[in-house]
Specification:
Mean pLDDT: 97
Strand content: 15-25%
Number of domains: 1
CATH architecture: 3-Layer(aba) Sandwich
Order of helices and strands: EHEHHEEHHEHEH
Helix content: 25-40%
Shape: globular
Largest sheet: 6 strands, parallel
CATH superfamily: Flavin prenyltransferase-like
Bound molecules: flavin mononucleotide
Number of strands: 6
Strand order of the largest sheet: 3-2-1-4-5-6
Length: 196
C-alpha cells in the first residue's frame, strides 16, 4: 500500500485537489492522508460552494463519496502521524498551494500540519510536489519557488497544456492531475499523452 499526503491550501483552484482525491479513490493500493488549511476550506466554499467543517470533516462533503483509504487530519493536529518522519510515506502533494504556504515551507516555518508534513518530506528527502496558483508572480514568490526547486522540491504550477486538445474544464484538470501523479509513477488513463 502506497501512502500519499495531500494538503489543500487557500489558493484558488481547490478543484484540482478535489479532482485528485476523486481519482485516488479509484486506486485501491493507495492510502491518502488528507489535511486542509482553514483558508483552503474558505476558498473551497467561495469558489465551489463546498461547505466543509474542518472539525467534523466528512469526505462526502468534499467529493460526494466516502473512502476508508482517505484519512483526514485537522490542520492543527501537529501530533498526527504525518507530522513525524518515522511515519513512512511516498511523499506529499500540496494542491493548490498558496504563496503563503510556499513561503512558510521554503523557510521551514511549520505553522500548521500541511507545512510541518512538507517540512518532514524535505528533511526525509521524500517527494514533495507543490502546485502553486498565483498570477502574476512577484520576485518574492519566484525566489521562494527557486529555493524549493533547488533542494529537489517539484514546483508544478497549475498551468495546463493545450496539446491534448482539451474540450472542457475536466480535460484541463486531468492534464494537471496526470502531471502530478507522474511524479509518483502512478499511471492514470486520464489524458491522451503526446505521440502515444
Ligand atoms: C477565494 C480565494 C482565492 C484565493 N486565491 C489565492 C491564490 O490563487 N493564490 C494565493 O497564493 N493565495 C490566494 N488566496 C489567499 C490565501 O487564501 C491566503 O494567503 C491564506 O492566508 C493562505 O493560507 P494557507 O496557505 O494556510 O491556506 C485566496 C483566498 C481566497 C479567499
Amino acid at each position: 500500500m502506497k501512502r500519499l499526503i495531500i494538503g489543500i491550501t487557500g489558493a484558488s483552484a481547490g478543484i484540482y485537489g478535489v479532482r485528485l482525491l476523486e481519482v485516488l479513490t479509484e486506486h485501491e493500493d493507495i492510502e491518502v492522508h488528507l489535511t486542509i488549511s482553514a483558508s483552503g476550506a474558505r476558498a473551497l466554499s467561495e469558489e465551489l460552494q463546498i461547505k466543509i467543517d474542518l472539525n467534523n470533516f466528512e469526505l462526502e462533503s468534499l467529493i460526494g463519496v466516502s473512502s476508508p483509504r482517505i484519512i483526514y487530519h485537522h490542520e492543527s493536529d501537529i501530533a498526527a502521524p504525518i507530522a513525524s518522519g518515522s511515519f513512512r510515506t511516498e511523499g506529499m502533494i500540496v494542491v493548490p498551494c498558496s504563496m503563503g504556504s510556499i513561503a512558510s515551507i521554503a523557510n521551514g516555518m511549520s505553522r500548521n500540519l500541511i507545512q510541518r508534513a512538507a517540512d518532514v518530506c524535505i528533511k526525509e528527502k521524500r517527494r514533495l510536489v507543490l502546485v502553486p496558483r498565483e498570477t502574476p508572480l512577484s520576485p518574492i514568490h519566484l525566489e521562494n519557488m527557486l529555493k524549493l526547486s533547488r533542494i529537489g522540491v517539484c514546483v508544478l504550477p497549475a498551468m495546463p497544456g493545450f496539446y491534448h486538445f482539451p474540450k472542457n474544464v475536466d480535460d484541463l484538470l486531468n492534464f494537471i492531475i496526470t502531471k502530478i501523479l507522474d511524479q509518483f509513477d502512478i499511471d492514470t488513463k486520464l489524458i491522451q499523452r503526446w505521440k502515444e
